[in-house]
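Researcher: Batch entry, complex prediction.
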Amino acid sequence: MKKYFVGFLLFAALNSVHAESIMRNYYSVVSNEFNKDVKVGTCLLSGKVVDMNGNPIQAGTIANLDRSRSCITDAKGNYSMVLSSKDTAIFFYHENYGEIVIWKFEFKSQHQIVINFFSDEKSDLPIMVEKPVVYLYSDTETDVEIVLNHDALSFTYPVYNKGWNVQTTSAGGLLDKSTGKEYPYLFWEACLTASRGHGKSNSLNYKSENNLVQGFLIKSDSTVSFLEHSLSKMGLNEKEQTDFITYWAPRMSQKEFAFVQFLVDEEYETSIAGLTVNPKPDSQRRIYMLFTLLEKPFVFFDYETQILPSFSRKGLTLIEWGGSEIDFLTDTN
Amino acid sequence: MKNLFLLSVAICYSQLLIAGDIPVLNQNYIIVSDEFSSEVPVGKCLVVGTIQETTFDYMTATREQIPLTGGLVSTLDRKKTATSDADGKFKLLLDSKDTSLFFYKKSFEEIVIWKYIFKSQHKVTINFLPGFNSSMMIVDKPVIYLYSENEINAEIKFSCKGDLTFTYPTYNESWNVIVNGNQITESGKKYPYLFWESETNELEYEIENQTMNGFLIKTDSVVDFLENSLFSLGLNSTEQTDFITFWAPRMIAKPFALVQFFVDDLYQEKISEMIIAPTPDAIRRVFMMFTPLESNETNLTILPQELNSFERKGFTVLEWGGSEISTINLIP
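Model: C-alpha cells for the complex:
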C-alpha cells in the first residue's frame, strides 16, 4: 500500500511551509494483539499523543472518519476508545498541531491496539495573506489616511509608506497623494508568520467555538454560485464580487470539494490585520476567506453552517477582502 | 544511511529562503561531494550522482527515496548530456569551463544549477531531488474590458489554445452583453470585465536565431517596469492596477525575470482568437509571457521590445492576460 506523496511534497516545498512538519508528524503502532476480553465486532484502541519534545498533547481529538466514534486526549495525552471492526481509518486532530490520518488500517475484532501519535505544533508556518484589496467610496471627495497594522508586508500597490494617503474620487476610485495617480483600490499582500508560543498557536486556522467551526463544505462545481450568494449577502457589490470571484474561484475548483470560512470585521481585525482609518468610515466591511481544498467531503473538525452578517453602505465606506488557503498536513485522499 | 539521507533532505528544505518575506523554493539538489581526483583528465570535471523522487508510505508513515530513470542531466547548451539509468544514476564529463547544469524530465520540476565552478580534475557528486510537476501552463486571468459611450449590444466569441478551465460570467459558446460606459451587463447582472482562464502546453516565447524581443528585468523594479510598459501599450490606470496587482507579486519571486509581450496580432495568433460583433472601433490585447530567473545570465540576445500605444475611440475593447513560462523552455 504505497502511495505517491510527491505532489504533496512539491507543494510543501513550494510553500516552504510544511516541510518540517511532514518529517515530524507520524504515528507508531506499539502493539496489536488478540484479547478475549474485547467484545466481538469491536476493537479496543488506546495510546498517547505527544509533541516532538515528548510533552503530552491535551484536548486533541482521535476519531474515525465519520466521527461517529471519537475521544479527547487527557492531560497526560492518553486516549482510549472502542472502534468497530468495520472501521478502516482514524485520525488525530488538534487545531494547534499537525493532523495525522491513518488510512486503511485493519481494526480486527477482539483486538487490543496501542497506537501513539507524534505531532508538531503548527505555529511557525508562514501563510500568505493573499490579495487584500481595499476599496473606499464617498459621495464627496474625502482625504483619507489608512494605516495597516501589519509588519510583514510583501507587496503593496500603490507603494505603502507607513500609510496610504488618498482622496476618494467621484468615480469610486482613489487618488494617491504620493504618486499623484488614480487607482481603483489599494492592494497589499503579506506573510503571516506566527510567533511560537508553547501550546498556544497564533497561526492562521479556522476559528472555532466550543470545538465547533462555523463554515461551509461545498462542492467545487457550485463555487461560483456559493460565492455570489455569500458575498452579496455580506454586502459586496457586483464589481467587488467579480474581483473576488475571478481571483479565488479558479483556485477553489481544483479539487472536488472545499471547506470555507469567512472571517468578517472584528475577526478580520484580530486574525489578519488591524486597520486604522482616518477619518473613521461611516460603514466598513472586511471579509477574509479561509479555505481548504478537499478530495472528499471530509474535514477533521465538527462544523455547522456559518451565519453571514449583512451590511448596508452609508457615507464614507470601506470595503476590504482577502483570503488564504489553509492546507491540512495530510491529504484526505 | 537512509536516515542520513532524510536528514540532508530536511536540511535542504529548511534552507528554503524567505527573502523579503516571499517564500522561495531554493534547493532541490544536494552537492554531496566535490573532490580532487587524479583519474579525471586536466581541464575536465566528472559529475556523477543520483536522481531520486520521494514517495510516502501511509501505512508506516515513512518516506522513501526511489530512483528516477530517464531523467536528463545536461549543460545549458546541451552539448554534454546524460540520462539516468535504472538506479537513477548518471555520469557526465564536463569541461572545467562549464558553469551550469540542469535536470529535466517531463512531469517533474526542472532544476537548474547556476554558476557552479566545475574544477579541473575534480569529481563532483550531485543528487537531484525533483518534485512532481505538471508541464501544463496556465493562461492566467485574461480579462476583457469593454467600453462604449453609447449603449450597445455586443457578442464576444473566442477560441483559445488548450482547455478552458474557468470563465466568469459563464461563457457558453459566446458572451452576449450590453456595454454602457465602462459597465458590462450580462443576464441582468453587471460586471467590470469578462474573465477566462485556460490550460495549455503550447506556449513558447518568440525567439529567432537566439534573439528575442523582450526584456530581462531586475524584479526589484518590476512595478516601474510594468507601469511604464503598460502605459506605453495604452492601458488606463484601472487596467494597469488590475494587471500589476495580479502579476507583480508573482514576478518578485526571483531576482530577475524574462518578459515578452504578445500584442494584438500575436495575441490573436498565439493565445486566443476573438471575434466581436459589432467590430470594435479600437482594440488592444496584451499578453505577458514571463519567466522568473535566479540569474541574469542567458544565451539569448535580448533586444528591447518596441511597445506602441493605441487610440481609444467609440466601442473599445481591451484584453490582458499572461503566463509564467518554465525555465526549461528557455533552454535551446
